[in-house]
């Protein structure tokens, strides 16, 4: 999908009067480390960085974003454009994909107020598209992503979903350490020393072994926002959460997903929609009547230029493909010789089987790239029918209810140990619907808690 780019405007959230942080035994000292530059981490950093020295450590190969990831691919040679460069590229010569979170909801009054601020800054906009089910009239499949309705609009970040976390970080004074994996956190006097890896050892999509860990600095407080911080090194995501905090984490189930980014010549959408006599779709749910996978798949694609679709797999299929060694649970590295020969073609063929009868001609694929989301979403155990144990973690293969549900009592949506100054935030700490809104509010709330506990009043 393609969006116009917005200028960067400083965001001030909540606290109108700056209050200094002080270094004594009862109040927070000035150095705070945030592990993860995705939705939760960027929101927490934006709320804290005006009053503390904040450093965000992000593992992403191309920079912050996490599950709010975007990919710009140069059409001429199919090379991925660095995210920090892509703000000024010519979109007519690229394929654009939001391949993680394609949109977000604002169901709570608090999130609606935040989104209103973001809209004023021209960071986000409502996604006013046409949505439907295929085959037409088939609507008994779970809409667990929460497609827009008149009563519940959804929003997109202008310039790609990754731009929202980045604008939050860029508008603050937080330092961002890109391509850095936090592997260990050790107590040092009354502070925490972080150790980690950079370069190829840092990325989860390689199988390069981690050797010597380098010190990443000493901090007075640590906020962990990576859903995989509690995993062992086998996950190759940020790990090393201290035992003191681990025992307090909610025990949620991971829902894995695969996505596949596909660019077509401008034929598929025209044929599909003319056959159905519909307005050109910008999103739909496929009922997989002809698929070996028993659930739904969500599709999103652009309305102009090269036609860019993102196919999202079912959790059951992702669980089948998530591991290479069933005894050790080791992930298959995210390497193209696997991604684009197994999950990519499988998702595309399942899509073709479902829509084939609606097409007047075979769509011409000009680009294909698959992506694995090993911890796509955290889900409550009562939503899962089929739970599998893989290398010490629980994964959901099947859901019995939609993930979008009514929230009656939000409660605290982060974990805090104020004595140790350790914090854990993210949608896996929330009883809201998993996804962007829960993750963002958790980040803002943990920042407000830290300020309330340790910022000098008056």
Query: Could you name the CATH homologous superfamily?
Result: FAD/NAD(P)-binding domain
Overall pLDDT metric: 76
Strand-pairing-aware structural class: alpha+beta
Task: Characterize the biggest β-sheet.
Answer: 6 strands, mixed
Would you identify the regions where 5 or more consecutive residues have pLDDT less than 50? 1-26, 273-281, 287-298
**Based on DSSP secondary structure assignment, what is the total number of beta strands?**
22
**The CATH C-level class name:** Alpha Beta
- Report the total helices: 9
Strand content: 25-35%
Number of structural domains:
1
Shape: globular
User: Could you say what the CATH topology is called?
Assistant: FAD/NAD(P)-binding domain
CATH architecture descriptor: 3-Layer(bba) Sandwich
Q: Walk across the major sheet and give the strand order.
A: 9-2-1-13-22-21
- Tell me the radius of gyration: 22 Å
User: Ends: how far apart?
Assistant: 47 Å
Proportion in helices: 10-25%
Keywords: Signal
Signal peptide: 1-20
Protein name: Amine oxidase domain-containing protein
Organism: Fistulifera solaris (Oleaginous diatom)
């Amino acid at each position: 999908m393609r969006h116009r780019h917005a200028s960067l405007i400083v965001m001030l959230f909540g606290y109108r009067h700056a209050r200094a942080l002080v270094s004594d035994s009862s109040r927070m000292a000035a150095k705070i480390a945030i592990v993860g530059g995705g939705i939760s981490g960027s929101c927490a950093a934006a709320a804290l960085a005006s009053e503390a020295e904040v450093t965000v450590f992000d593992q992403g190969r191309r920079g912050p974003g996490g599950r709010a990831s975007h990919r710009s691919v140069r059409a001429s040679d199919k090379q991925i454009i660095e995210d920090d460069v892509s703000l000024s590229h010519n979109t007519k010569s690229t394929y654009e994909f939001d391949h993680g979170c394609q949109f977000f909801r604002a169901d709570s009054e608090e999130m609606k107020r935040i989104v209103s601020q973001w809209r004023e800054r021209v960071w986000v906009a409502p996604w006013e598209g046409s949505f439907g089910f295929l085959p037409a009239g088939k609507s008994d499949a779970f809409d667990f992503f929460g497609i827009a309705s008149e009563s519940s609009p959804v929003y997109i970040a202008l310039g790609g979903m990754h731009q929202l976390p980045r604008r939050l970080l860029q508008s603050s004074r937080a330092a961002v350490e890109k391509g850095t994996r936090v592997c260990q956190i050790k107590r040092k006097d009354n502070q925490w020393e972080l150790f980690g890896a950079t370069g190829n050892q840092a990325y989860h999509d390689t199988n390069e072994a981690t050797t010597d860990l380098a010190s990443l600095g000493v901090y007075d407080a640590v906020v962990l926002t990576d859903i995989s911080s509690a995993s062992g090194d086998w996950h190759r995501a940020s790990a090393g959460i201290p035992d003191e905090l681990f025992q307090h984490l909610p025990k949620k189930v991971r829902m894995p997903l695969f996505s596949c980014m596909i660019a077509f010549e401008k034929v598929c959408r025209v044929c599909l929609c003319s056959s159905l006599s519909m307005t050109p779709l910008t999103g739909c749910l496929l009922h997989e009547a002809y698929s070996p996978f028993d659930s739904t798949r969500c599709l999103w694609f652009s309305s102009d230029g090269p036609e860019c679709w993102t196919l999202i797999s079912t959790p059951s299929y992702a669980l089948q493909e998530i591991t290479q060694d069933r005894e050790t649970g080791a992930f298959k590295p995210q390497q193209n010789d696997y991604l684009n020969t197994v999950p990519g073609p499988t998702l595309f063929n399942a899509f073709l089987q479902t829509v084939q009868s609606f097409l007047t001609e075979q769509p011409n694929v000009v680009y294909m790239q698959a992506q694995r989301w090993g911890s796509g979403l955290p889900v409550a155990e009562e939503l899962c029918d089929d739970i599998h144990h893989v290398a010490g973690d629980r994964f959901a293969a099947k859901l019995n209810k939609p993930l979008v549900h009514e929230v009656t009592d939000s409660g605290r949506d982060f974990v805090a140990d104020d004595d140790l100054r350790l914090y854990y935030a993210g949608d896996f700490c929330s009883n809201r619907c998993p996804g962007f809104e829960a993750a963002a509010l958790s980040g803002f709330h943990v920042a407000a808690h830290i300020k309330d506990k340790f910022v000098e009043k008056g």
